[in-house]
Every structure is written in structure tokens, then in C-alpha cells.
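Slide 14.
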Amino acid sequence: MAEARNQSSRLWFWRGSAVVVVLVFIIARYLLRDELPVRVVRVAHETLVNTVSTNGHVEPEVNYPFYSPVSTTVKAVYVQPGDHVAAGKLLMVLDDVSARAHEASAQSGVKAAQAALDAATHNGTQEQRQMAAADIARSKLERNQAQHDLDALTKLNSTGAASGSEVAAARQRLDTTEAALHAQQESATSRYSSAEVARAQAALADAEANLRAARQVVAETAIHAPVAGTVYTISVSRGDYAEQGRILLEMADLDHVRVRAYFDEPEIGRLAVGQKILIKWDARQGREWHGHIVRAPATVITFGTRNVGEVLVALDDPDGGLLPDTNVNVTVTLSSDPNAMIVPRESLRSENGKPYVFKVVDNSLARTPVVTGIVNLTQVAIVSGLQDGDEVATGTTSGQPLQAGVPIKALR
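Slide 15: predicted structure.
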């Protein structure tokens, strides 16, 4: 009996010793385990800017292109590309022989249409009116004579000196002459209908429009500067043949240029009028221009292999340094916070759509939920969840994943 109790006591002793050994091993393993090497950064307040970059094209706010009004030759060119010219300066002259011939033909057409309208509104030409007046005068004489003959025969008939048939014949002649006189008078006062007058008026208006067009063509053969500005493109030389519609030269006030920028379709929804724009031109390294969006995209267009929205950018500091038709780099500021609490973007993690970071607490990591603000390619603003002086982990140098509660060796 005593022997059994001794064996039971020894069994419990060994069991207890084993538990103690295991506990000691676990505690020692925990206390002596290697620290995880972790890169950490301190939360800082900085200006955080979210931007998007793309390409753009410089163009004048108001461009003045000149095209050949007719197919003709270039007689003279008085400017060179890059020349600054005053308003009204003669820039180029084209051969105007055919244009002046067309103008003369148009003038003749106007005169003919004016004569036709004058005839329609005055019941015929002067010759026709004179002939009508003569015919009316002659018909009046004939009517008066017929009336005199009728009166005489009527008296003679009352005495039996003239027969009734003679009186009837005289009355018929009077009716005939009166009818002819009435018809001539009607013709003299209403020779043309209202529709014919309207047609003559339309013909004159058409002839006058042709004349104005012909004179405009003649005027366009001598090209003058409409405003003070710079001639930046000349595509012909003296003696060249220019087909109708061919561009001859372009000029503009280069102190007033704008940029047409092309943003990819996914970025369009974040653009708005008034957003700030930074412009750089590779041809002038180190120089920058600033502007703002004055017209946001209204639709999506195909630009090469891209689907883009066109944005018009007004310059805030124009200095004549950006030349028309040049390609520039455009960066838009989508949002900005001058005093944001910033952490590197690689420190931010998410689970089920909820962001969090690993904050360093007593040489270990603590999973800490955060609320984010502005995010750009490298940084993220923390609205809440962290405080000044906090440190967060960005990753390990060993490639191991970050875990909460793991002792770390902070690498700053």
C-alpha cells in the first residue's frame, strides 16, 4: 500500500517537472527570441499634393490663319517667321487679275439686276413707259373721235338723215376704242405682278451678294495684319502657286497663348475648372509656367491610341516664351493639404476595405486603424488614428510579413 502511494507521488512529481520544463522553455523562447528587423518612420506634418501629369499642346488664344482666296500665284512676301508686326502691316500680296475680272463681272450683274428691278417697280423701262404713254394718247384721240362721230350720227338719226345701223356701228367703234384705252391704261400702271417684283428684288440681292464676295476676294489678295502680333508660320514663297484654300501664313499675339492638355479617361472625373496647372517645355529646361483650367472636358475623344478628355489651360504668367504648336508637359494639382499628417504609402494596409497601419509600441507592433485623406503616388494623409511623434512600420528587411505583437528591431 505504501509502495503504491510512493509510485503515485513520483509519477505526479515527474509530471509536474515536465510541465515546469515546458513553461520554462516557452518563456525562455519568448524572452530570447530574435527581434524582427523593421523599417520605421515617424509621422510628420508636411504639405501633401496630389497631382496627375500628361501632355499638352500650345496654341494661341486667338489665331489668325490666312488662306488663299483663289487659285493664284504669290506676288510678294514682306515678312519672315518670327517677325513682330504692327496692326495693318502688309504681309503678302497675291496675283489678283482673275479676282478683279470676277469683280467686274459681278458689277455688271448688279447693274443688270438693278435695271430689271427698276423696270418692275416703275411698270417697265423708260422706253416702254414712253411707248405706253404714246399709245394711250393715240387711243384717247381715237376714243374722242368715235364719241364725236356717235354724237353726230345720233342727231342725224333724229331727223332721219342717218340710219339706225349707222348709229349702232358708231357706238360699237366707241366701245372698242374705250376698251383699248382701258387696257393700255391698266398695262401702264400694273405691267408687273407682285411676284415678278419680288423675283427682281431677289435677283438684285443675289447679284449684290456676288459683288460683295468678289470684292472680298480682291481684298484678300493683299494680306494685312489684323492686329499687332507675331508671324509664326509662312508656308509659301514668292512665285509659288497657291491652290484655293491653301494656308499661306499664321500670326497671333504670342503674349496670349493657352495650352490644350489631354488627360486619360480615368482621370477626367477628378478635373475641375480652376485647378492649378504646372507647365514645362523640354526645349527650355529649368523654366516653368503656371496656369489654371478654364474648360473641363465635355466629352471623350480618340487621341492616337488613347481615349482622352481635352482641357483648356489659361496661363497665369505669360511671357511670350511658349511658342505655338509646341508640345509641353502638363501637371494638374488635384488636391492639396498644407499641413497634413503624412505617412509613406507603403505603410498603409487594408482589410475588408478598412485601412490600418502597424504602429510601434514598446518595441513591438500594434495594428492601428486609421482614417485616410489625400493620397498620392508615394504618401498618404492620416486624418485620425495617429498622433504627432508616432512611428509606423513600412516593412521588414528580412522579407518576413509584419505581425502585431512581434518584438522588433527598429531601423530608422
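Speaker note: The domain at 63-95+221-251 is CATH 2.40.50.100 (OB fold (Dihydrolipoamide Acetyltransferase, E2P)).
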